Batch of 2 targets.
Target 1
Amino acid sequence: MKELTLKNLDDFLRGTAFLGTGGGGNPYVGGLMLRQELEKGINCNLIKGSEVDDDALIIPIAVMGAPTVIVERLPNAKSCIKALRKMEELMGKKATALIGAEAGGINGTLPFILSSYTGLPVIDGDGMGRAFPELQMCTFGVYGVNCSPVIVRDEKDNEIIVNAENNHASEMFARVVCMQMGTKSEIALYPMTGKQMKETSVHHTCTLAYEIGKSIREARDTGKSPLNGIIDYFKTSFDKRFCKLLFEGKVTDLLRESTDGWAKGTVKLTSLSDPNQEMVVQLQNEFLIALVDNKPVAMVPDLICLVDLETAEPITAEDVKYGQRVNVIGVSVPENMRSKEALDTFGPVPFKVWDEYIPIEKIS
Amino acid sequence: MKELTLKNLDDFLRGTAFLGTGGGGNPYVGGLMLRQELEKGINCNLIKGSEVDDDALIIPIAVMGAPTVIVERLPNAKSCIKALRKMEELMGKKATALIGAEAGGINGTLPFILSSYTGLPVIDGDGMGRAFPELQMCTFGVYGVNCSPVIVRDEKDNEIIVNAENNHASEMFARVVCMQMGTKSEIALYPMTGKQMKETSVHHTCTLAYEIGKSIREARDTGKSPLNGIIDYFKTSFDKRFCKLLFEGKVTDLLRESTDGWAKGTVKLTSLSDPNQEMVVQLQNEFLIALVDNKPVAMVPDLICLVDLETAEPITAEDVKYGQRVNVIGVSVPENMRSKEALDTFGPVPFKVWDEYIPIEKIS
């Protein structure tokens, strides 16, 4: 993908929803905002990380909060731009490009929305190749970029600048501020050089999102199973990944609360082929672990994606409903998300969902 | 008072404890910090507000949090200085003088501690002539000074800058940050010009504190009743106030919790002369209202001060103990703390303790 246009927007949005693994904010909302801009004839340039100068200033922009809130209280583009400008002011130079903090969900689309307003290009990459609930859960930080200063803003022009002792502290201060703002804030964070961006990003994740979305649409259009469209895509894609259908089931129980600044809960699925077999998926904004008979079949940072049984349309955590029929798909993640440092930050142990990381391809 | 020295320190501390009306942080702690500096031979200059140029930059500094916490986790002078320097940086000029946000408690001594480090003079005045629990409860704000930017810091160099839409929002954001810091933070706030300081302060409150403390000591030294020392002082002082003994009693019940970032609770007293008569004092860091037979005898912003029955030593809310014998003294406040705007901010209605303000002299 070279640019985001009206033509490839729907495929891209579908892919960001898939990479969101339930979270990252509902891309439908970001899609509406982006479509409005693209309809004016604006295209948003996507550039490779390698195209950027080492000393350029790269600024990640995101919306922070609980997806259950953000679906009703939309991100504010003006507030995002003010966060960007404030960060430029603090850094003493202009940004060369934008990058998503996370490729999944609404935060996958947000850099493009800002690109349409500012003309800045978007870098094909992000800090996690998916979505995660906390600010320190980011390859930028895992590989040495300081999360602070974090600009935390809302549409009423409340603006809080966090400078914290470490990235986890940045998260904790930004989180209480975000909760005070009503659990939705526009943020700028992890300001970095072009060199840092090249070394710490998960690359090509915007293109990946687009191609995942496209594989689902093309399968639908040609009468093929959309599920197989996804699975076949990962076999041949530029970014080869292990991908597997983990479970085919019906939602038979659902607990979902907006608490501590997050959407937290559990989804219970009953197998369509064997009514005695159950899958339990735990979520904190994103789907964190999938267990069958109390044994994990996939866990963070690997992707656990719920898609509609018929259409393979990705389902976000706040859209999961009782009685829904879904396929649960597991996908592996790149090596820089599986290092010791990475797993210490966003593996199953810091999430307290399992006591050691087992790669999805080893479980299967 | 022209300067704070080792000679007048104890009187001053006793007076800040009295003006603290139970809160503002225990002045014992501030006294230890200040004595350490004064013993090096440093004196801290006190200047009148009227001596300062209209375009000077005046910066209030304070410690924020629950007194029950601050008595164990002391204010950090270096962190205060960093807050001061950050505020100067944001304002683009150097401070001419310091002023206390509140004259009561540890916040009455803090500007002098900073003065000893920086050489800056302290202005004889503050923003409430007492102590209050919330940042917007300040004559600076009541009469038009913006509470933001608020620099909220801790000893680990976590530094959060709050820019909020109004002074109440500044309080709410700073409060959640302070709680995240462990309910103790060093703050700089309400940056103002000399002109604003002259127009919005409660003046001469440092001298007032010193003279209250002195009146208690002199009564003790001459064998007079220390309680009468205080009452007589207010009859003849430069700052004439209504002052009255409200109750003579024993602490027979006490509820005190550190919650929501404050010390909150109730003190119940039984009269020493009539065991059927009770006084109830409600507190949120400070003593807010005193009721006898469910009828108020004094309420915010008037001062409600608990002092030891024998020595008239002021008792802070965290030092109140079961069985303690105390005198409860009520003192009126200056007119700029009783205007409609002032009462809308720190009267009994915003504190939700009574439905209208009744001046202490009218109740009596």
Note: Chain A has a mean pLDDT of 95.
Target 2
Amino acid sequence: MTDPTETAFPEQREGEERLCFDPLERVDAQLRFIGRIETPWQRGECPKNVTRARETGQGARVVLEPGFVQGLTGLEVGQGILLFYWMHQARRDLITQRPRHHETARGTFALRSPNRVNPISLAAVRVTSLDLEVGVIGIDAIDCFDGTPLLDIKPSAPAVDVLPEL
Amino acid sequence: MTDPTETAFPEQREGEERLCFDPLERVDAQLRFIGRIETPWQRGECPKNVTRARETGQGARVVLEPGFVQGLTGLEVGQGILLFYWMHQARRDLITQRPRHHETARGTFALRSPNRVNPISLAAVRVTSLDLEVGVIGIDAIDCFDGTPLLDIKPSAPAVDVLPEL
């Protein structure tokens, strides 16, 4: 599929295709951000995954909006948690993509690219400090931009979060 | 906090508290469902996690909407994938909860309960069959209700999806 407007999007690479409709022509559910993630990372300098972020030795902070602070009751320092966040700088219109290190394009759902119909991401991190009054969680590391909106926090449960070996 | 309307919600348990505002008074982002998950489970008979679902030996199917089928290109049978889905039967107003097996209430973000401000869930599953024409993925198991809306599919990456041991 060739697209006459392709040159308007310099980040579009050969083999990449856009949805031929606006996925938000139908809105099925609505999200409320519950806080923000404060990190050392801006666009262009963000580690490529949470393991790489951990290797930098730089921690991060999760800051809840006041109305949601009570929801942290029962969390503990040292615990593993899953953070669900919204990749607010991502594109939502690409259905195939060709990352720089790939020779051919693949479907968005066969890639970990931030650009997706619903740009939700997940990180398994460790709680390093906890202020239950103010609603601030220190975490060991994360690979998202400073100011990334937070959607949810769950205790991690490795026994069910990980696929068993065949 | 006592609540005069508590008796109107029989599922509310002692120690559970509701948000004192509607979290959707401010809508921060919008979701588009990309398909549905077909499972053997109705409310009241659903396994409590994906490990238990796997133990039943019953598989499930992910059925994409036609517009999103191309996004599966590159997925393979046998591969591990993460499914992000929307728990459409969940409540969004509880900020503390007391599950049946807990003696005291805890914050929603310290629990794996389906009832949460943004009821997004995650399952790590294995692809058992794949129809890239129709957009149907067979999976080994999942613990969600039949008809659950699908938000996203990503290849699993155990090296980054799992928190390293201390």
Note: Chain A touches chain B through 67 residues (CB under 8 Å).
